[in-house]
Amino acid sequence: MNNLFDITSSDNDAFFWSGPLPHLHQSLILPSMTSLALSGGWGHMLFQHKQMEDFEIWYSTYHVKQRRKFKVRAGTAVIEFSFLIHNSIVQRVHTLYDNWVEETQFNIFYLPYIEDQVLFEPGLQYTTLDIHCTTAFLQRLEPYYPEIIKPFLDAIAAGRIPAQIFPHHMFATQEMVDLASRILRLLQVPVVNGSALELAVKLLLCAALACKTDLQLGGRIVSLSRISQINRVSTLLLKDLTEEPDFRVLSQQAGMNETYLKKLFTKRFDKPPYRYWQEHRMNEAFTRVAYTNESLTDIALDMGFSALSNFSKAFKKHYDFNPSHLRK
User: Fold this and answer.
1) Per DSSP, what are the bridge partners of residue 69?
2) pTM above 0.85, yes or no
């Protein structure tokens, strides 16, 4: 079994490469991807990758039973979109200091070789989605974001490396989370629709790049850290579709006052945060009414409505017809 890369730990752990271990990874294996497992007394990891013409997708899961710091190295130059889907970690990627990378954060960078140090806490499962692409692939997106991609590619050509799009990791928008889920769904079949997969990857990268386009509020350019936090609010809003959002709590989590949060959110997403939440709530209700056999009463109560009549009223206000219309 060929190793995908070199890996070491400060505790001198042993590492054993193998095929997927069904009793550990069965629910995580994507049939269209090549899978390799790494295990030892410290825990286990599963690396799944799909090679396309100009990009490669990596979906990796890590489960560590003991606190460990691993160092990964591979002598391959790569442009990488790195997306931490689940659980926060301490990570160092070609820097002199450790970064606390939080769940749903991402960045895009170029590495002359891969060198990654990660500190894992015990008993947790971590999930990452990484996209490695060629310069030619990224150049095809340059007409849409020339002010972002050209300086990045110029830095690579000039040898100013490692180069990165964002000075620090950014929180993803809910749109990006949904696009990542779409990519994984496309990979859940043995034969992948290559065109659909490439489109989903391009859309995800474009959504990431859009986070760096200038955003003005009140005549001032909004900082990237503020944009990152308002992106985070877009995902936190949808964690619970049954209870109305507490914007006081959300504003505290975002480090800004409630009035500013609502103004910035509206500027960023072209709709107020409550309407954003309500639209996603009703879209979820529509999907359950249209595509499941659940009773309307069960859906209404599960979505946080006190009675079917209240649910029907809200549904009709949003869609101009009653939910029972979809069941006829």
Assistant:
1) 119
2) yes
User: pLDDT for 177-192, tens place per residue?
Assistant: 999 999 999 999 999 9
Mean pLDDT along residues 242-257: 95
pLDDT at 5 over 70: yes
Q: What is the pLDDT of residue 1?
A: 40
Domain stop point among 270, 285, 301: 270
What is the rounded CA–CA span in Å between residue 48 and residue 128? 11
For the cut 80, the answer to whether the pLDDT of residue 68 exceeds it is yes
* Distance (Å, whole) CA 233 – CA 174: 9
pLDDT digits (tens, 9 = 90+) for 260-294: 999 999 999 999 999 999 999 999 999 999 999 99
Residue 311 is assigned to a structural domain of this protein: yes
CA distance 8 to 13: 7
Burial class of residue 220, CB neighbours in 10 A (0-12, 13-18, 19+): exposed
List, edge to edge, every strand of the sheet that includes 6-9.
6-9, 68-74, 114-120, 89-93, 99-101
156 shares its domain with 246: no
141 and 180, same domain (yes or no)? yes
CA distance 28 to 129: 13
In a domain, 114, yes or no: yes
Tally of domains within the chain: 3
Reported as type and span, the H/E element at residue 232 is helix 224-236
> What is the domain extent for residue 256?
214-270
CATH number at residue 187: 2.60.120.10
> Do both 282 and 232 map to the same domain?
no
Q: Are 36 and 17 in contact (CB under 8 A)?
A: yes
First to last CA, the chain: 56
Arithmetic mean of pLDDT, 231-249 = 95
